[in-house]
Amino acid sequence: MDVIDLVLTICLVSNPSNCREERLHFENRGSLNICVFTAPTEIAKWAQEHPNHRVVRWKCTYPSEERTL
Fold first, then answer.
1. Which of 3, 13, 20, 41 sits 20 to 30 Å CA-CA off 50?
2. What is the tens place of the pLDDT at every residue in 1-57?
3. What pLDDT is attached to residue 57?
4. More confident residue, 45 or 66
């Protein structure tokens, strides 16, 4: 099964200059547009589970290496 990555750039709420990338992996359902359409819901879920972080950017991309779910 092919994978699409939802790449979040997240920063600590207590130190906004301390940022990193977090990758969420999802089943490829045909295109990056589907990822873009469903991303806000997934980002909201992630943010609720990680209250000490803030999502400052995000994008959908194909993984750079072969992955399967």
1. 3
2. 588 999 999 999 999 999 999 999 988 888 888 899 999 999 999 999 999 999 999
3. 97
4. 45
Beta carbons of 23 and 67 less than 8 angstroms apart: no
Tell me the C-alpha distance between 27 and 30, whole Å: 9
Tokens 């709420």 — which residue? Answer: 13
The three-state secondary structure class of 39 is helix
φ and ψ at residue 3, rounded to 5 degrees: -125, 145
Q: Which of these, 46, 52, 65, 55, lies nearest to 20 by C-alpha position? A: 55
- Strand order in 19-27's β-sheet? 19-27, 3-12, 53-61
The H or E element containing residue 11 is strand 3-12
Report the 10 Å Cβ neighbour count for 49.
8
